[in-house]
Amino acid sequence: MKLWGGRFTKDTNKLVESFNASITFDKRFWREDIQGSIAHITMLAKQGIISDEEKNIMEKALLEISDDIANGRLTISEDSEDIHSFIEAVLTERIGEPGKKLHTGRSRNDQVALDMKLYVRKQITETDGLLKHLLTTIHTIMKNNTETFMPGFTHLQKAQPVTLAHHMGAYFEMFRRDRSRLYDTLTRMNTCPLGAGALAGTTYPLDRDYSAELLGFDCATANSMDSVSDRDYIVELLNDLSIIMMHLSRFSEEVILWNSNEYGFVEIDDAYSTGSSIMPQKKNPDIAELVRGKTGRVYGALMSMLTTLKGLPLAYNKDMQEDKEFTFDAIDTVKGCISLFDGMLATMKFNNKRMEESAKKGFTNATDAADYLVNHGVTFRDAHAIVGQLVLFCIDKGISLDDMTLEEYKAVSPVFEEDIFEKISIKTCVEKRNTKGAPGRDAMKEIIKANEKYLSD
Ligand code: ARG
Predict the structure, then answer these.
(1) Residues of the chain below pLDDT 50
(2) Which string of b and e fits 170-181 if b means at least 16 CB within 10 Å?
């Protein structure tokens, strides 16, 4: 059934019909469409626009349709143009005349704007739940590893020693910000477009704030033209999702490096790795690679949405139908990636010994050796040069600063004493760094305590 056949004398071209239709993808929000319709008729009845009896008949039938779709008794036919036409057609088929009143004071323009908002709102909540679970996994690793030493890198060169808890803590911050970004989007988008009509409201005495309240929105939208053409929240969502993917992708890149034979910092669980069809020795980090790879796809959705919107005059234009497929794909992709990454991380084994050895080998305590000299009255610039000489000496002999004898130290600077060894040990280097946010155990414990509280709120 077409919702707009009256004005036409010829059938639609078959290709136009399928080009125009959105049922193949908007059927995904059938629940939201029914939820919106029930709120709409409840408001219509309260305002005396339809009778209570008509409302009751429609509501009962809509709930039955919902049940039937959920239980597979009713299949959404792709012959309809969109999910709105389909539900209305089934309703009218089942209850006759009253069904034809469903669309009173409503246009598909405000209807689709509502459905998409309801759907996105639910998806934001689900994505947030997955992020929270991922944060709990990271938190557990942090709690267990405040004394697991590893090299910290800048420019992918060993820089200063940190701990695994500290390194994981950086990702905790990123995903915490992601949750807060989603929350911002949710807060800003929570106004109800229902009742905006095609673009200019309606002549019926609708109570738009009442419909908004029924659907859990803060209030009705303030401008009917904006209501049917606003897709800002989708751009915001796709931006939020892109940033989540960017974070997951960076994390994946590290897992891939750490899992390599050269690093050997971690071993990905068998359940989360795959093999090679030709090389029997291989265990590949495919999940991390796929997460990294799928990031481009989500960025693509953001670019696509921004591009679709950029030339659109007010108010609704059919271009807006293009907001759905990319958004749905981005949501599915991100939810899948968070869950899989979480599972991979939770089962990954960390090779603590190897990480500590690596931290010891790359002169990550050179800054601390310089600080030692500074604490004994040498200027930082001179100290920097002296330690530079020590490093050269070590490279030449193939040893680390910890392996030098006191005599060798003294040959470069008489300031060095026996306590240099304790002062540049990995443990000391980390423990001394106790300013807020630094890797020292006490500083880390504070952060972990705060994170614990955040997760329990
Ligand atoms: N399928 C359309 C969309 O997704 C629904 C709104 C159609 N409105 C219209 N006036 N043709 O945007």
Answers:
(1) none
(2) ebbebbbebbeb
Tell me how crowded residue 371 is: count the other CB atoms within 10 A of its CB: 18
Domain assignment present for residue 157? The answer is: no
Q: Provide the residue range defining the domain that includes 35.
A: 5-104
Predicted pLDDT at 1: 63
Q: 365: domain CATH number?
A: 1.10.40.30
Whether 112 lines ligand 1, by a CB cut-off of 6 Å, is yes
Provide the CATH number for the domain around residue 188.
1.20.200.10
pTM of the model: 0.94
pLDDT in tens, 186-202: 999 999 999 999 999 99
**Interval 400-441: pLDDT, tens:** 999 999 999 999 999 999 999 999 999 999 999 999 999 999
Say whether 155 is catalytic.
yes
Q: For 354-376, what is each residue's pLDDT tens digit?
A: 999 999 988 999 999 999 999 99
CB neighbours (10 Å) of residue 359?
23
Decide if 277 is catalytic.
no
The best mutation among 22, 314, 319 to test binding of ligand 1, ranked by most ligand atoms within 8 Å of the C-beta, falls on 22
What are the residues whose beta carbons fall under 8 Å from the beta carbon of 79, sequence distance 6 or more? none
Last residue of a domain, which of 313, 348, 383?
Answer: 348
- Distance (angstroms) between ligand 1 centre and the Cα of 309 equals 15
DSSP state of 284: B
The two three-digit tokens of residue 317, written as one number = 């234009």
**23 in a structural domain:** yes
User: Strand, helix or coil at 8?
Assistant: coil
Question: Using an 8 Å Cβ cutoff, are 194 and 220 in contact?
Answer: yes
Mean pLDDT (the chain) is 96
